[in-house]
Known about the structure:
By secondary structure, the protein is an all-alpha fold. The chain folds into 4 domains: 1-127, no CATH class; 132-278; 295-376 and 421-555, no CATH class; 556-608. Helix content is 62%, strand content 2%. The protein has 27 helices and 3 strands. It has helices spanning 2-5, 21-29, 35-48, 51-57, 64-67, 80-97, 105-127, 141-151, 158-168, 171-187, 194-209, 216-225, 232-264, 280-292, 298-322, 331-339, 352-370, 429-436, 441-449, 456-461, 465-481, 488-512, 518-529, 533-545, 552-571, 577-585, 592-608; strands at residues 383-387, 399-402, 412-416. The chain has a 3-stranded mixed sheet with strand order 1-3-2. It starts with a helix and ends with a helix. Mean pLDDT is 91; it is low at 1-30.
Amino acid sequence: xxxxxxxxxxxxxxFGVSLGSVYLVNLFFMKPVSIDHYLGKEIVVDLVSSPEYxxxxxxxxxxxxxxxxxxxxxxxKPDNIQNEIENSKNSLxxxxxxxxxxxSDNQKITKRIAIFDVENELNQLENFPYHDYPLxxxxxxxxxxxxxxxxxxxxxxxxxxxxxxxxxxxVKDVFAGQLEWLEKQATAGIxxxxxxxxxxxxxxxxxxxxxxxxxxxYTEFFKKVDLLNISDSDLSLLDRDLRTSIDTSVxxxxxxxxxxxxxxxxxxxxxxxxxxxxxxDEFYKLxxxxxxxxxxxxxxxxxxxxxxxxxxxxxxxxxxTSLGYDSRKTAGVLMxxxxxxxxxxxxxxxDRKEIVVQDYMDMVNEATNGIKGYFHxxxxxxxxxxxxxxxxxxxxxxxxxxxPALDGSRPGAFFVNLYDIKQTPKYSMKTLAYxxxxxxxxxxxxxxxxxxxxxxxxxxxxxxxxxSEGWALYAExxxxxxxxxxDPYDELGILQSEIFRAVxxxxxxxxxxxxxxxxxxxxxxKAKTGMSDTECRVEIERYIVWPGQALSYKVGMIKILxxxxxxxxxxxxxxxxxxxxxxxxDHGIPxxxxxxxxxxxxxEKALKS
Length: 609
């Protein structure tokens, strides 16, 4: 359970004032007394077993001389799945032994979250252990190793530079472990769709054929090393050792994966939806439960999507007509024309990436100042804007967010994809900034990481995209309500973002439940959103390899808006938007049924005061 629950965010302040030596002794050597104690122990066990998580947090680097974590990588073992099953069964049994009568109100919530999490994970481990696609075109294992080493491994001195190379020496072993998993997946009769093979073989061939001057591991490493004050002889040794490591470990590791894809290409899935995999319909239902934290059926979600697409389209058409556009055309057609309007696009100049990144940064700063009146507090961690690395920009989404390090050594980062300039019409930029940075992902995630009132588990042990992505989509509308997007074109950008997420409800269930093809889903998205051909293809292909995740955005937003309306109706003039946002944000990253409980408690408290 907990071993799957850390989900690549900052986790705990293990060796600081938050956890003293007495606590650590109790944590590891005494029988857990409370549910918080038990779950905290599980988080620590997970953390120290993952060198990547330890690096990601940053706060362990001063202890690297003991832990050596910055010189290690996790290598999959054949018995991992069975071990995870046993661990999850044991966790579930122990959690159920905690009786509600002996728990505080917060501990009862913790128990509900933990049991919900472990039940879903155990279901997947026992019944669908090989239904994921860890080797995929969007953020597959081959790209993850590069982004981890380039973006998260620190190179601040000679020792850390040497650790970087020790890690690259392990890449072939990491991919060999991944290959064993892929072979077991093949034995289970599960193969990725044909288009995934096409993308992956091309991507892996590019990685294999890179010269050193092109290789992202080499170039990103020396961008950092060149800033250090080290001798020419040390620099020469680092250069020699990294070249050797790439030749003997990194490239051969990519070859292992490429050769597997080539050898199984003829078995590639001719269909696109998860329904076509063994017991795929049941797996999809589990994905819906895990990602949306609801019991909606695929049919219910599909119908919600159709209704929302119709509603949002009508509002978009209203704005477009008021701006003088042809009322005989659909909103999707008109938005597509907007995407082609040169006045709304950046010039395709050599410095366009730097210009767009700075414009995004200005929007983030404006939003940070303009939204302060809607929250009791703002996160302390800063956020910066970066372009998506060139090695992954062809298949990466339009934007994504990376959380800050707990020790403050790395800010939050909002990555924007600038591969195709037509994917960045100016009217759509503000809404992406609101979603990924402020008041969206950065505000919510940094707020949770900085919340010292949360227990270890509630702070770091569980997360769900129904909450985090639901909040980010809600944040776009909140920014509009706060007056940050007064231009009607900016509102169109926000509505296009919302209809994009509503369309996801239709196409995700269409692909994985109603058996649509990739091409049918692309055509529907194109017609309803007016997004570019490139964007539609990349997005639909992402949903195919990540079933159910795309549903969480709109489902989460709908629930937050429903709860806000409920609170406004109940409290009338006594409704306080700051209190509402605290009720939503102050409890970690919980399932939607917990958010509803906390808002209900806020309403009850306000009515009594």
